[in-house]
Records
---
Amino acid sequence: MPSFPAWTSRTVSRLLVVLLALFAALAGTGADALSEPAASPDRPRYDVTLRADADGSRWAGRERVTFRNSSDRPLREVYVRLWGNGVDKCGTAGTPSPVKVTDVRGGTAGPLTVNCTALRITLPKPLARGERATVSFGVSITVPKRNDRFGREGAVRFLGNALPVLAVRDAKGWHLDPYVSTGESFYALASDFRVALDHPSKLKVPATGRTWSVPGGPGRSVTVSVAHRVRDFAWAAGPFHTAVATTPGGVRVKSYWAPGTSAAGVRLTREEGAAAVDRFGEEFGRYPYGEIDLVMTSEFGGGMEYPGLVLLGTTDEGGAVVHEVAHQWWYGIVGNDEYGAPWLDESFAQYANARFYGWETRDCWSEVEWPSNSTALTNSMAYWAAHRDEYHLVYTAGSCALADLERTLGADTMARLLKRYAHDHWYGVSTTADFKKAAQSVTDKDLTAFWKQHRIR
């Protein structure tokens, strides 16, 4: 009879804990999830050079993208999203699409699909797990004549979602969702960018990342930007006034405002933006990018977030800077599929906004607000785009639901939950299931009824 070690009851208990944890991690994943990482192609690096015309309305140059296949499945193609074509789609004979890709190298380009917002590039050979590849292409960008995140206001040009970026493939396949103007369709993995923007020296060019300018040709400058682990790259161009300050927490805040923007609003926006980036750094984890740009104009509608840069309509009362700064964590650092689960960034950013201002949220939840049983906080943009008059619920009811969760768990527990959750998903991708599991793990209360009541499905 073979001899066995004399295990103590404590040893057996520890072994059982390990085994239970392992089974819990595997439960419900399925074979595909076990072999398929959360998302691919990962570790993208973008190297971009663009040259502007006299007023920043047109940019042209070249983009090079290097990436890795992190999946067990061979990567036979990649998709490039031309989100700048979202509003105009494939254009007309007189007004072509604002973003064009030409001279593709490193693969074979197919026709544009999804209303000219998706370009398939077939790779020369299947890319095995862990292998890297590079594709490059010419890029031409014409800023549309509308006041929008990709548009213009007076002499200012906004280039949000103008630069082509890789689509994501995960266990659900390629994410090739349509563009929506109410909300966002964007889903991208944390990436590295090095971008050189050649422009007339009279233009100031705020951009994602740490930026500096060097002399270009006669009357021109080159703004160079380097950004690590960001989900997108945006910039603006115009005759901005500028100011730079460093917060007590060490974040460099660069402010840009167009002529005619309210001086009182600029002051308030600068103050609140600096305070917000430090406060959220304490609450969710230190802001990792070192620099953030606040771009202010008088007529821009609301605000729009990009990594390290926010666009803000600014009046005497300021603007939406606190909400947009909160997005640096909820969408930027803690990523999510903004088309599939917009509440994971908008509701969380608005909850942070409400906490910053100390808004009263007790008893804010009301079933009266819900139009039908099919309306849920966790609906995708496919639903909200078809029910635009209900989309405000992602902000109002969503932040209220998180405030109610804070009261259910306790303020200290909620604070620990969010900080730990951000840490665990830093530069990663969050899902509704992830958050529900994390919240349940910090309390002995069964949250099933809470999720049902607050339509978090």
Note: Residues 38-146+161-196 form a domain with the Immunoglobulin-like fold (CATH 2.60.40).
---
Amino acid sequence: MASPSIQRAYRAPCPGCGAPVDFLSAQSSHAVCGYCQSTVVRNGETLSRIGKMAELFDDHSLLQLQVSGQWKSQNFTLVGRLQYKYAEGTWTEWHAVLTDGSSAYLSEDNGSYVFSTPQLSRAALPPADRFRIGATTTINGKSFSVASNQQVSLLSAQGELPHLPALGVPFAMVELRSAAGEVLSLDYGVQPPASSLGSAVLLDDLQLVGLRAESSKEEKGREFSCPSCGAPVTVALASSKSITCGSCHSLIDLTSGIGAELRHASQDEPVQPLIALGSTGKLQGVDWQVVGFQHRMGSTPGDDEQFGWEEYLLFNAKRGFIFLVDSTEGWSVVKPTTGAPEMTGSGQSATYLGSRYQLKESYNAETTYVLGEFYWQVQRGQKTSNRDFSSGKSLLSLEQSAQEVTWSVGSKIDSALVASAFKLEGKKELLKRSDASPLSSGLNVSLSTVLWIFLILLVLALVFSRRSNCDPNVQNCSSSGSYRSSGGSFGGFSTGGGHK
């Protein structure tokens, strides 16, 4: 695929080293020299050196400068890269130049990708602190839900850029999401704040040419000694923000960099995953690798009963991350949504992309054990407020913390499919859940078994009918006779960063 046919390009020598610096877009005002890392600003046809950019961290992305592709029938080329840091880790945004010379962005979003273009606001945007997590607001006539409000800072940059915030200086980044699957980012690193509107994309759909060859990637990973026990720890994914030591199971925070003092937390009572880390399997026609595992516990407010479930974090270089969730109610495959479903005022139902989901359960969740690598800074003891919705086999989950709101969407899958995907036919019985029970799976059941089940149900019905007339003044009555589900089965996961 040819690169965009830019009507006018500009080249000038770098004020720092004399190497050529190119500007393909008239909207670009900054560039980082690829030879000496000088940060230069363009004023007309004059380049001025304003500093030196920090070295890029290797994110092992398949993307690189000069990759070309197609979006909505218009060609584009990646000409710049921005690397940001926030409280839970880092993320990357790629600056793209379209055929007409205008700018666009290809950015990470909860382990996936979003393609967005700058938007002009009809009215002045309010200060960042006016956006409250979970609240709804209207911008340019569209309704959005506030998903994230974070303080971020620029770590490094490369290539040609429309604007460049001061290196290492914190500023606000607000993210809003719509029911139509759109994400609106408000960047308070410039004044007035810049905004961009985008939607989820698959790298394959962008018809990308010039991707970094997978075989040329640095596969050996980073290695350091565990700060708890001293055993060697290897980080396979450069995007990882947390990792566990394979020897002592300590949970290690990577957000400060391996060269800095690493924070760690000891973990006892390990939970062994049924699917080993590093395993590969094909789900929904895509090859995935298991890179992370976490056990979580849930409880309903006012109820002492707890329930648990497991989540496997799966990775594919072009698709990003998804979750394979294991609960007593069955297996499910879910991933974070780009948009924000619309929930009714009562909270009893939610609508997303034309489908309506009914509330199944509300509960609090806590991460209790972690293994492997994660693209967000997962911590033992992380807590969220969750709501699970369903529509047949389709699932929708809401998680909310003090910093952000995250929705995920997915569907149930049969345990036999999980066993086949990861070549675990020998563990079929261990993988079976309620989805494989005789009555739900349609297997043959003897007449005597059916009669026994009928009699048991009849007795239970009589018991519950008597309990409904229970007088708490003279009898020991339960406050509720309802069935307790496993919770978490829809893929509610520890929030991995709303925008990035």
Note: The mean pLDDT is 78.
---
Amino acid sequence: MASKSFYFQLVLRVIFITLSAIGLAYFGVQKEYIIAAVFLIVLVLLTAYLIKYVNHTNRKIAYFFESIKNEDFTLRFPEYENVKSLKELNRSLNMLNAMIHKVHVKNQVQEKYYQEILKHADIGILTINSKGHILFANPRVEHLLNYKPLNHIKQLEQVDKKLYDLFAKLEPFQRKLIELTNEREKIQLTLKSTTVTLDNQNLLLVVVQDIQRELEEKEADSWEKLIRVLTHEIMNTIAPITSISESILNYYKKEDGLIPLEELTEKHIQNTSKGLAVVKEQGNNLMDFVQSYRSFLSIPTPDKSLVKAEQLIHKVFVLIDQENQNTNINFVFNLTTENLEFFIDEKQITQVLLNLCKNAVQSIGEQENGNITVTAGITDEKEKFITVTDNGPGIPPELIDEIFIPFFTTKNTGTGIGLSLSKQILRLHGGSLKLRSTPNQETVFTLLF
């Protein structure tokens, strides 16, 4: 409404100015100089009034936007103007000012709310611009990095030169691990970075987290599980040796001492021989167990080379086919990315895939319509992967966390280091081995590189 009224009055003034100019020209030509002078005065007055009218409105609007720019919402325009167009314009500007003020206050409240959340967050958060200036750093990150206040990443050089170098070279979507030592403690920090855009400026958002406690808990939990398994295996081997040794000693004892040599019978010798054979067998089992532990700890550094995915899986299928006696199992290979290659130690990864396929075969057993599918490709995160999927009975949820513990096994045979050895090999390749299992549906082992 205001713009329409303003437009109408502007057009009306232009028409009057045009008519005055025509009248001035007409009476000037007719040599009616007095009347022409009157039209000239009217023309000058109308032109001056038009300029004043337009400038007044422009100044008002310019002043309004300048106030908004400076976040000054106290500005009020009078709504009692005699001119209807100005009255409606002032009312509209006042309404717009109130709306913008309301949105501004709401944004301030939300900003303060989010800042309070970030201040009390258990993880450190900071934003860095392209010149290394730290635009925001919550108290937690200042505590973790042992420096306050944080304004520029060069300040981190006073904390630790390696920490500064890490931040100076940090790129978006990277994850880094660093250990810091100060007068208080030694902490392990993980840094995750991503990009955010604020006011057309690209910023690096870095999340800093202390994982020392989690590492200690994981380490303690791993030691507890490993010791439990080791104790179980060693006790199962030692107990028969102790029992049989005691039985053999009892063959040669009586209440008043050892049995005389002349009282020894062939039965004593046979029982002793059988007992020693069992002791030897248990001793060999214990030696094999220790050798398995040694092999787990002494995996050689991977000798990497480029290996075609199709060639690798074909080799594994040939090896598993020679050992597999179950004709009810169907092996399938899926290649989701053409000409896919892996930079790996072919022998070690073949060993991992062969072990996973053997486990799948044993899991399926005599089940009808057994399927083992090996799939190779690249994830959406640009990670190369190989999955081994079977439709066997699966792994119970309560055993998922135990399955990768060295020497833990649910089978009657084997040492129980196959999966833990496989996970160690993937770790040496800079990758990981993950498990997902749905009982009686499918079990999926994923090798990520």
Note: The first strand starts at residue 124 and ends at 128.
